[in-house]
Amino acid sequence: MDDDTCCHDFFTHPTGTRQRRYEALRAVFVDRRPQKQVADQFGYTYGSLRQLVHDFRARCRRAAPPPFFSPSPAVDLTARTPSRPPPAP
To answer: How much is the CA Rg of the chain, to the nearest whole Å?
Structure first.
């Protein structure tokens, strides 16, 4: 059996700001965990987590997309870069 500790830690101890915000809000709204407990786990003060929750609820009511993942510009993988001429002898 594989040891999935690092995979588990990716979700329970996120390092990026956006992922940390996402996981904290998910814990509040999906897992229905107490905000104080979630704030402690994800390194927020209780007041800052309450503000995140408030802002998230307001965005949902306005049907505004949550600010977790910004769409990246499309990358054309078929585009070729101009080739350089071979160096002169």
So the answer is: 21
Largest CA distance in the chain: 72
Query: What are the residue ranges spanned by the domains of the chain?
Result: 5-61
Phi, psi angle pair for 39, to nearest 5° = -60, -45
Kind and range of the H or E run holding 73: none
User: Helix, strand or coil for residue 84?
Assistant: coil
Check if the beta carbon of residue 64 is closer than 8 Å to that of residue 54: no
**φ, ψ for residue 30, nearest 5 deg:** -95, -50
pTM, to two decimals: 0.69
Condensed to tens digits (0 to 9), the pLDDT of residues 63-74 reads: 887 767 555 544
H helices of the chain, in order, are: 5-12, 17-29, 35-42, 46-61
Task: Compute the distance between CA of residue 4 and CA of residue 77 in angstroms, rounded to an integer.
Answer: 33
Whether residue 18 is predicted with pLDDT greater than 70 in this model: the reply is yes
